[in-house]
Amino acid sequence: MKTLYNFSAGPSVLPNEVLLSAQKDLVDYQGCGMSVMEMSHRSKEFDDIIVKTEELFHKVMGIPENYKVLFLQGGATQQFAAIPMNLLAKKGKADYVLTGNFATGAYKEALLFGKTISVAGSTKDENFKRIPEQKELKLDPGADYLHICENNTIIGSKWKYLPETGGVPIVSDMSSCIMSEPMDVSKYGLIYAGAQKNIAPAGLTVVIIRKDLIGDPLPGTPTMLNYKVLAENDSMKNTPPCWSIYVCKLVLEYLLEIGGIPEMHKRNEDKAKLLYDYLDSTDFYQTHVIPKDRSIMNVTFRTSAEDLDEKFAKESKAAGLANLKGHRDVGGMRASIYNAMPKAGIEALVAFMQKFEKENRK
Ligand SMILES: *Cc1c(COP(=O)(O)O)cnc(C)c1O
Fold first, then answer.
1. Cis peptide before 11 (omega within 30 of 0)
2. Is the pTM of this model over 0.90?
3. Which residues line ligand 1 (CB under 6 A)?
4. Using CA positions, which residue lies closest to atom 7 of ligand 1?
5. Which of 26, 197, 213, 330 would be a feasible disulfide site paired with 176, CB 3.0-4.6 Å?
């Protein structure tokens, strides 16, 4: 049984119900005589799993028929390269908005592939403490796509609007917010996510792509990064991450059971409010992101001194609250409160923060 609350940014907490269900079928999957970890990806049993998982994606996220869901490996980071390789062939131009580390990483990778990769907006000189507004963006109406990082995992910020692009497809990195709230998939050209933040164990990367964007890669695009090949083979050109796909299926079934993404969103709002309300009620802790752009998945904050932050990380761990130390680039603390974090975990965190404040206030 779990003995602590895990605030890790990823890989991260999974629902207990899902872990127990995986445990039940771990050795002998539904009486077939072997584990999902052991079976051929070409077996009937696994084919049922991957087909059902794709169906569940469409159902849970409301993905329209003209989109394909791909189950890949290589992480969101590999998509930083796959996206320009597959989408830049028409005009060779793309816009990137820099809102944090991963957004910047995606931009730098795209520079390897296109001549006209532009920064359409950036809040770097404000330490990424907010998301640029529409009127600040310099969008190229002739770009192949606009790339945004929808939830900035390290910084703790989230896009609360989708830019008007005049038809230029939006490509969104949803690694740390996928299925945390309802999203209108039809507004995107491509959504991608490393699954290990919110929907599965590590090893699975999901790409949701509008079908008309598939099929025109740059010359030299490797077979295993070519969306056309991957889509035509239903993510089975080679061995897919079978176990992670299976656990993802369990997560999707769990989501449906509790009432789908709308119910999960309600719970997430409720959890985040508990934490932000406390943070806003005291001057002992400061938040990094302006209130309007705060993430409900990754909450960043700090005390007034670095040594106190160190002490917080150490003592919180001893109190059963794991992985609250902030990312090395930002410092301070970060509580990742993904879908599977129960409200009791936030209550325990706030109680600890109150106690820590009392003991350390000068
Ligand atoms: C974690 C994360 C990544 C990197 O994901 P990998 O699967 O480790 O490559 C990229 N973007 C965002 C927003 C993330 O949270």
1. yes
2. yes
3. 10, 75-77, 102, 149, 153, 173, 175-176, 194, 197
4. 75
5. 197
